[in-house]
Amino acid sequence: MPEEAPIVELLVAFGQELREAGLPAGTGDVMTCCAAAAALDPSDLADLYWAGRTTMVTRRDQIPVYDRVFRRFFLDEHDATSDAETLQPTIRAATPAQSVLEIPATEHGESGDEEEVSLGLMASDTEVRRDKSFAACTPEELAALRRIMARIRLTPPRRCTRRTAPARRGTRPDMRRTVRETMRTHGEPSELFWRRRRQRMRPLILILDISGSMSDYSRNLLQFAHSTSRAAARVEVFCFGTRLTRITKALERRRADDALDQAAKAVVDWEGGTRIGDSLDAFVRGWGRRGTSRGAIVVICSDGLDRGDPAVLAGAMERLGRLSHRIVWMNPHKGDAADFRPSTLGMMVAAPHIDLLLSGHDLRSLEELATLLPELR
């Protein structure tokens, strides 16, 4: 967007375009849209689209008109219904965000149920960027990947509890209910009722390495942790460099940037040294023994470069393996190698206690984690 074109002037012109297209976008709606856009990134067309749609559209049947005007005004796209119009807006937005915004065209008169804004990468670029390492991505590519990353949902496996619930087919007969129904029929047994054990989702614990050697990956992993903590229940997030820090509360903020800023303020050893053994030992002693990791899926994201005592790391991994259900280790140095062998002392010590080893260096490896996680039964 040109620097000389203020966002207010841009949205006023856009509101005039909407009114000429038949949408009742009044001055108050435009002012509300300006206030919403001021809290967002004005160079991001995806944010600008939703800011206008939530403030200037009041009915579902107005969405196709809004989308058509938005494409014509911001992306210079014209369709058959607008070729006869000679609107020439004085301001145009030409930003890199056009590569990550796609509004599907719809026929005039549709109900709007299929109206959707696809936020993410174009199909031609998605495959390339999913395999591209975070360390090699440009800032624009990382911003686009984070939008896709926010939609990844981790679903931990379920476990059976001691409590039971009525079921059509169960593992044990429900004698109380069966007798009660039999008494209602004057002693004539009518049906045998069953019960089975209830299931609940296992806790998920993310322990992230934010030392200097992980600086190319730590922010993206924190973004992934923020999305995970908002999508799944019973998620705990910890960071460590030379000491362990719990950042679960900091990641509860809705906006990812605000959450990461709060996490950065809570962590005092950002991009410093690495003491994996001492940090995991502190987690086991301070949190694991209290029941936090009991029966949980523990995901450790680290490159394995440890400056601490290997015996401390071995003892912490052994105790963590006994307390937790499964331990998943994500090492960016693994990459796409199928025959990866640990070369650092920390990884060699931790390897016997790891149930699943992934890379975590690109978007595809995070999607692989989301796919394999429900199968860790």
Describe what you observe in this structure:
The chain is an alpha/beta fold and 377 residues long. The chain has 13 helices and eleven strands. It has helices spanning 7-20, 27-38, 45-56, 63-75, 123-130, 139-149, 175-184, 218-231, 256-266, 276-286, 310-323, 345-350, 363-372; strands at 101-102, 118-119, 158-167, 172-173, 194-201, 204-209, 235-240, 244-246, 297-301, 326-330, 356-358. A six-stranded mixed β-sheet has the order 8-7-6-9-10-11. Strands 3-5-4 form a three-stranded antiparallel β-sheet, with no helix packed on it. Helix 12 links the parallel strand 10 (326-330) and strand 11 (356-358). Helix 1 (7-20) packs antiparallel against helix 2 (27-38) and helix 10 (276-286) runs parallel beside helix 11 (310-323).
Summarize the structure.
With 377 residues, the chain is an alpha/beta fold. The chain is built from 13 helices and 11 strands.
Question: What is the secondary structure topology, with strand pairs?
Answer:
Elements: H1 7-20, H2 27-38, H3 45-56, H4 63-75, E1 101-102, E2 118-119, H5 123-130, H6 139-149, E3 158-167, E4 172-173, H7 175-184, E5 194-201, E6 204-209, H8 218-231, E7 235-240, E8 244-246, H9 256-266, H10 276-286, E9 297-301, H11 310-323, E10 326-330, H12 345-350, E11 356-358, H13 363-372
Parallel strand pairs: 6-7, 6-9, 9-10, 10-11
Antiparallel strand pairs: 1-2, 3-5, 4-5, 7-8
Helix pairs in contact: 1-2, 2-3, 10-11
